[in-house]
Amino acid sequence: MLLYATGGLAYGHLGASAPAMGLSWGGTKAGWTVGAGGEFAIDRNWSVKVEYLYMDLGSFNGASTATTTVANALNTPTPGFNTVTTTTTTGSFGTRFTDNIVRVGVNYRFSGPVVAKY
């Protein structure tokens, strides 16, 4: 039986979008991970393992603005008027990205331990 603890750097590309509103945001974030696991021998060549990891990529805040302007030609729709419509859509968000990961596996060792003979 082998029990262990692990930790280190975690990173990933995260993004958010609202296509109907024309808003999007994305970026790569770095954070940290920590976990523990164990590997247990079944026989000389086979083992099973289980591992748990907690990952934290921190907080994310973003905002986007999309502006649409529609201008009608002079005298449309009514003679003498020029219609201009401007729509501005602003979106913002704030979130924190964390994850819990459980891995389960089966290992097969192809050869036995190397023993030096003198």
From TrEMBL:
It comes from the Bacteria. Keywords: Cell outer membrane, Membrane, Signal. Pfam families: OMP_b-brl (PF13505). Residues 2-110 form the Outer membrane protein beta-barrel domain. The keyword 4Fe-4S does not apply. SUPFAM superfamilies: OMPA-like. It is found in: Cell outer membrane. InterPro entries: Beta-barrel_OMP (IPR027385), OMP-like (IPR051692), OMP/PagP_B-barrel (IPR011250). Belongs to the Omp25/RopB family. This is Outer membrane beta-barrel protein. It comes from Bradyrhizobium zhengyangense.
